[in-house]
């Protein structure tokens, strides 16, 4: 399977692209046929197939931003987005699992004892080592203090990768004093958590984004429990503790990298949809027009050209933002709040244009895409579900940035999910 060819010149290699990153990117590109072949089976499983999971593990896809201290590649933003977009070109759910694995860097903020415990024996682990659920959500679990740690219970939603992970990172609420509550992150072993069979959705079915529950309290030692108020400082300390570009991003840089990785999955799926569209158009005969092939129809040519332009514009947005993040990380320059909000707006808008482009491709090529084995219908569904994620909702993002444009103090990114400390909620 070849990526569609076009006469337009390709962009020059980024100065922030590395030999290691390009090697993994090329390996990811070679996996596209396998990932696309297995995507349907993954949807039925509600998780990646064993073959896809092993193939991604073998190329190092789950250790892209992990420090070299733990066998990772410590890659920067440009390398990560190029690799993830290639994986998304094969299967959006596979790209999402690589996205999930990137969240493992948050674990590095925990005390050294916890980090060593979590990474012990991880060299042979197949798939993402940890999954997160409801860390920044409005509704989280609960924790109470005991000798040496915390007793944790509750339910959490959208635990992407939970069927593949060894550790679960969840959000909890706990009493900080009489009538006062705080928010924290707890890391549990997968064996302490029950996976609920409720990920029955229209797209991204193979991401195992199930809900999790702990019905009977489970013990979490102090070293695997962290108040969210401490998290930014602890993350900042990792910039000095670990080597490699991946460890040099500031807090806003990490937030933007997370956003860019999300967009890169959508970008890859849009590329995959256009490839499939061109391949189908070259083979099919129109239903109600006298052309030998659908590809000979002017409407098909116009649709393909417009979709290509939208994809290239989104690609330019992703690559330029990734380069900016890498440059700031290398030079030790902090990302300003104004930069963060502007870049977030640009990224989210670009992703939504891709949703529109792929939907138009499906409508143009017709009913053959309704077949559940057709890649376009899967890309359409997976992109739509990816765009439902709270961090890439267009109107809320536009409101946050629009307030800045109007000279009004903007809301923080997770204003609804990180309440200030105060009395416990009633009831």
Automatic annotation (TrEMBL):
Keywords: Oxidoreductase. SUPFAM superfamilies: Acyl-CoA dehydrogenase C-terminal domain-like (SSF47203), Acyl-CoA dehydrogenase NM domain-like (SSF56645). Residues 262-390 form the Acyl-CoA dehydrogenase C-terminal domain. It comes from the Bacteria. This is Alkylation response protein AidB-like acyl-CoA dehydrogenase. It comes from Rhizobium herbae.
